[in-house]
Amino acid sequence: MGGIREQKKQQTRRAIETAAIDLFSRKGFDATSMDDIASAAGVGKATIYGYFPAKDDIFLHYCDDRLVTAFNQFKEQQSADISFVEYLIAFFMIKFASITENREFGRLLLREMLFPREATDKVRDHNQRYFDILEGVFSVAEKRGEILPDLDHFMLSGHFFSLYVGLLAGWYGCYFNQLEEVEQNMRTLFEQVCHGIKP
């Protein structure tokens, strides 16, 4: 019985998230109300608050799910002998494809990542999960002698993340519109950096 109840709760949570992200993409985050989400999800407004205290929580929960999905996909595709640069490219390309799959959602996500309305603990926690993944990649690269020892992994994460954001800006600015072009440009940028951090 408990399993059925939990399954129902997960279905309701997914319905709320799906409705919210669709509305955020079409109407914009600020123009979407909790009433709108409740109506689109087919649930009562009070039900939504039982799962998510605010719109921001729906958005961040969805982003966390996307990050976990991307990282799991990333891990499945990797082999032990892949180079540091290829490792980074694989991770960021999975993220890039995920974010740009829905153009308007991608815009919203970028805005909230770079210029959040409020720098809450939840926003920082989401960003920290992102950096934790990258710092893990750098730790492996350091042990394998692919980068210099004693580098600040957090600052290094910020460096590669900045290049990634630049590529996203290029995509939304229509400087390129094919994922193959993105990957080629990403490889060029990342290799330029790595020439300066190899031992």
Query: Largest sheet, if any?
Result: none
Query: How would the global form be characterised?
Result: elongated
How many helix segments? 9
Helix percentage: over 70%
Rg on CA atoms, Å: 19 Å
What does the average pLDDT come to?
A: 85
- H/E element string? HHHHHHHHH
Proportion of strand residues: under 5%
Query: Which structural class matches the secondary elements?
Result: mainly alpha
Q: Ranges with pLDDT <50 over ≥5 residues?
A: none
- What distance lies between the first and last C-alpha atoms, to the nearest angstrom? 59 Å
Q: What is the number of strand segments?
A: 0
Protein name: TetR/AcrR family transcriptional regulator
GO molecular function, one term: transcription cis-regulatory region binding
DNA-binding region: 33-52
Keywords: DNA-binding, Transcription, Transcription regulation
Question: Can you characterise this structure?
Answer:
InterPro entries: DNA-bd_HTH_TetR-type_CS, Homeodomain-like_sf, HTH-type_TetR-like_transc_reg, HTH_TetR, Tet_transcr_reg_TetR-rel_C_sf. It comes from Pelovirga terrestris. This is TetR/AcrR family transcriptional regulator. GO terms for molecular function: DNA-binding transcription factor activity; transcription cis-regulatory region binding. Residues 10-70 form the HTH tetR-type domain. By secondary structure, this protein is mainly alpha-helical. Helix content is 76%, strand content 0%. It contains nine helices and no strands. The chain has helices at 2-27, 34-41, 45-51, 55-77, 84-100, 103-114, 121-143, 153-172, 179-194. The longest helix has 26 residues, at 2-27. The protein is elongated.
